[in-house]
Amino acid sequence: SDDLKGKVALITGANKGIGYEIARQLGSRGATVLIGARDIERGEEASNKLRSSQIDAKAVQLNVTAQQTIDSTAQQIEREFGKLDILVNNAGIAIDRVPPSQLDIEKLRETYETNVFGVFAVTKAMLPLLKKSTAGRIVNISSGLGSLTQNSDPNYEFAEMKLLAYNSSKTAVNALTILFAGELKDTPIKVNAADPGFTATDINQHRGYRTVEQGATAAIKLATLPNDGFSGGFFDENGVVPW
Ligand code: NAD
Asked: For 58-96, how does the pLDDT look when each residue is reduced to its tens digit (9 = 90+)?
């Protein structure tokens, strides 16, 4: 179908994994998809692959921890499209695999730089463009591991205690989602967080049992929410889940 024709979507970290799949699905419905990639050559490879299947894709150099690349991408979108309809904050890292007491503070800092400050900086820079859309959508890719309700479950897997930096960064993403949604509640823009579930990608090879197609489902729903849809929520593919 081409129900997203005329929409412009920016997906961060879209050269591979769940981000690439989100771009592929939005693009196959007619959206123009901007493949945000830290390494522009990787972005070009991904966008060439998408273009070979009739998707209107274009690579943009975007390192979510480098403000100047964020600003130049925003300027480029302004110049070429004059608006942004969909922003998917997908770029993320998981680099801690040790118990909390052994975590190196630099790893915590690095994780927050990408997963938290990156989402904040890209959202802030893209907001003026999203406000020029008649139906702006912001989708933050969070994780069930960031949810306080799940983390306080007594059956919570011990292994996850080795992801202090990652889990707490996603808790921050959830908070940021609610607060931006609150600020934007009187605009057409909707801001929600998506839980992909454990998906087989480079970040999660050991127990990613879902396909990237399944992992992208919640994000696609949120990126294409109707105008009376929810804002400020946390969703998996089955609907809203408690924070
Ligand atoms: P992945 O490692 O395949 O993809 C991560 C992407 O982020 C890559 O394209 C990488 O280049 C990009 N990235 C990292 N740092 C960046 C930076 N500074 N600037 C720009 N891009 C950067 O992993 P994935 O599973 O596809 O992860 C995508 C998102 O889904 C992440 O936010 C991750 O936390 C989240 N997530 C994944 C799972 C899972 O099980 N795979 C579960 C829950 C949430």
From this structure: 999 999 999 999 999 999 999 999 999 999 999 999 998
- Backbone phi, psi, residue 163, to 5°: -125, 45
CATH topology of domain 8-240: Rossmann fold (3.40.50)
Cα gap 203→182, rounded to integer Å:
31
Query: Ligand 1 within 6 A of 140 CB?
Result: no
Q: C-alpha angle with apex 169: 155 to 229, nearest 5 degrees?
A: 85
Q: Report how far ligand 1's centroid is from the alpha carbon of 20 (Å).
A: 10
Residue whose CA is at the smallest distance from ligand 1 atom 44: 143
> Domain-by-domain residue ranges, the chain?
8-240
pLDDT value for 24: 98
**Ligand 1 in reach of 146 Cβ (< 6 A):** no
Active site residues: 166
Residue 153: pLDDT band (50, 70, 90) is low
Cβ of 141 less than 6 Å from ligand 1: yes
